[in-house]
Amino acid sequence: MISFLRNMALAGVLSVLLFWGSTPFADEKSPPSNIQEIQLSFAPLVKKTAPAVVNIYTRKIVRARARMPLFDDPFFRQFFGKQFGLNPQGPEVKRQQNSLGSGVIVAKNGVIVTNNHVIEGADEIRVVLHDRREFDATLVATDEKTDLAILKIETNGKVFPVVGLADSDDLEVGDLVLAIGNPFGVGQTVTSGIVSALSRSGVGLSNLGSFIQTDAAINPGNSGGALIGLDGRLVGINTAIFSKSGGSQGIGFAVPSNMVRAVIRGVSQVGKLVRPWLGATGQTVNQDIANSLGLERPSGVLINSVHKSGAAKQAGLRVGDVILAVNGHDVLDGNALAHRIATLPVGEQAVLRVLRGAQTKALKLSLMPPPEIPKRNIQNLDGEQPLRGSRVANLSPALADELDLDPFQIGVLILAISRGSPANRLGFRRGDFIRAINGQTVDSVRKLLTLVKKPVERWRITVERDGEQRDLVINR
Predict the structure, then answer these.
(1) Catalytic: 223?
(2) Under CATH, domain 379-475 is a member of which superfamily?
(3) 3-state DSSP call for residue 53?
(4) Is 136 one of the annotated active-site residues of the chain?
(5) Is the peptide bond before 374 cis (omega within 30 degrees of 0)?
(6) Which fold, 280-366?
(7) Which whole-number Å values give the CA distances from 184 to 9, 95, 215, 219, 279, in the listed order?
(8) Options 99, 102, 143, 147, the catalytic residue
(9) What is the pLDDT of residues 309-363, one digit of tens each?
(10) CATH architecture of the domain with residue range 43-274
(11) DSSP string, 16-47
């Protein structure tokens, strides 16, 4: 009876496959067309790619105040929480914190790509290969904006397996993929699924997110692991999951391989990541804006500001233009535009398709990093004045990009404040803009240094914090 049911089921599957096989498709991708194709295995693909996926173990020393002995009892912690009972006057204790993730070897010289959150704050990074060889890894560069990190292990003449990078723009919803990593520390694991969506944003781990979404099972420990296409190349780095339980619920996200390639390519010899900067901001075109512009559908980014020193200005982009595409790829919203620009190499050119009025234009954009204009001129303030103990700088687009601030802002920014200094006691904060001193505008560090050296009986300092200006008056 069981054999009969199995044969009937197989006949049903074959009939469906024969129907699919007779249907013409516009491209080369097609579902299985016969029983031999159903019996195909992913095993050869896994053998080819899995050796290049590594386990990453990190250690870091964390410091905390000692807990009063009574609250070391699990019974009390159950009701009052882990932080309850910390002794603020007690000695600082050190403890070792371990974490686990995955990574992918992408070059024969030992270059490994993983997630930034896997190695963030680590004092020691250890890499374990598929064949159980272990190596200490050096951190080459990190990029919080994409949640990627580049590691390096010394080859010393050894041969390492590698995975090549695919063009993630070739991915389509419905393509089969494999996720390889070390979930929960159980050992290397392979899961399969499909690409369930593309260009997902708002995942929360990346400011330049345009993630690949997949239903291949991804769990804690998979972070930094490989998402592999059926051609055996890397299409993404597994980064995050959507879960209410902490385990896989069929919604995982991966950083596209084109972004991975851009980060590797953009790391300079000193380990600093350099990426192109558009030098313009705008808003996503919604239905109302599309109607007012005569667009058939809401798509693109309406430019509302162009920086005088940016690449967009040099390319001829204007306020009111709508960027519709970059290098032939449609731009649906602001996230997509930022992602497209970030994946391109500095020093080359891109073509923007722009709607201006009723006409569509092509603008050539020279890809350049955010400019260091004005020069930072970082200074530590001292002397008998209220800002003593603060470190200040001129804010440029380059510095704003590093600090994740608005690159269109200008002025003198407080970078840091020494604990216990006059500036600290008076309530100045890191991130404050110093706008005026005693009624005179502060537009540069040089001007600030001149003003704080003048002897006065009363100080009146205007600062801008979170977009609001406030005055602080200090008697000498």
Answers:
(1) yes
(2) PDZ domain (2.30.42.10)
(3) strand
(4) no
(5) yes
(6) Pdz3 Domain (2.30.42)
(7) 37, 22, 18, 7, 42
(8) 147
(9) 999 999 999 999 999 999 999 998 888 899 899 999 998 999 999 999 889 999 9
(10) Beta Barrel (2.40)
(11) HHHHHHTS--SSS-----SHHHHT--SHHHHH
